[in-house]
Amino acid sequence: MKTLDYNFRGQMEGEKVITFSRKHWVALLPDILPFALFVGIIITMFLEFSEIKIANASEPLFQLLVIMSLVAVGVVIHRFFLHIIKFFLSVTIFTNYRIVEMKKTLFLHDIKESLYYNEIQDVEYEQNGFFKNILKLGTICITLGGGNDSKKLTQIPNPDFHFRLVSKLKSDYFVSISKDQRENDRQHQSNIVSTMASAQRGSESGTKTVKTNMGDYVL
Amino acid sequence: MTMTWITIAIFHLLSIGFMGGCIMRLNRNLKHYQLSENRHTMLFGFIKIEHCMLIYIFFIVLYTIGSMLFINFLAMQ
């Protein structure tokens, strides 16, 4: 299968991205709240800088402590922004053929899972709880055919929209498949008719066998 | 105090280098794969990844300057 790699790596020829989704920003709250608290403490310390009196700043143990605390502050800042980048890079893409879930970080992880619409048996969504309803986030549970396997897309924003989207894309996919099938059948039928016609013309001129892509017709 | 200065300077070089590497890698990723954002995909409905990158640069610069000032303050004590 030829790939385009226009919107994402592994995009197939004729595959159109309908929409994409990230996790709700609530998923980042466990990172944002401690970081905000941390920044608040740092700013307060900085403002009270002149009040601090240090007995002996040249002591090696104290200097080691300073270095370690500064390194720790740097690590916390980088870690927080790496989590933000992970939030932005991890997306769920809904195309006309499939659902692609990408879990990606800058350096460590690159996981892609795709779910074709013909594998989907049932779709349901949950939006339970006061905050989930207020903030419009929920879980989409996709049951796969031929087993008890299911795929959960958690902390999806606007789950009602995504639920309706998946249902519509699934039905559109089957409509397009049956349309293609009908088109193929029609093509096949017209091939046979034209083959028969040419065979008849051939038999009038004495030819007995006609080679077609469907097989040899001996008349 | 000289040793502290050198150690912190090396750490800041590493830190700024790491941030540069992250931004370059992310930029390459964003250029390759284009997805049209909407308010449901942005952070809090309005923050794009480019804004986050600017805040990242701002924080690292602030951190570098702040820690240098802090060490300078300690050296003067």
Can you offer a commentary on this structure?
The complex is a heterodimer of chains A (219) and B (77). Chain A is α+β, with helices and mostly antiparallel strands and 219 residues long. Chain A contains 4 helices and 9 strands; from the N terminus they run βααββββαββαββ. The longest helix of chain A has 46 residues, at 159-204. The model of chain A has no long low-confidence stretch (mean pLDDT 81). With 77 residues, chain B is an all-alpha fold. Helix content of chain B is 77%, strand content 0%. Chain B has 2 helices and no strands. The longest helix of chain B has 31 residues, at 2-32. The N and C termini of chain B lie close together (11 Å). Chains A and B meet through β1 and α2 of A and α1 and α2 of B.
Q: Gist?
A:
The complex is a heterodimer of chains A (219) and B (77). Chain A is an alpha+beta fold. Helix content of chain A is 46%, strand content 25%.
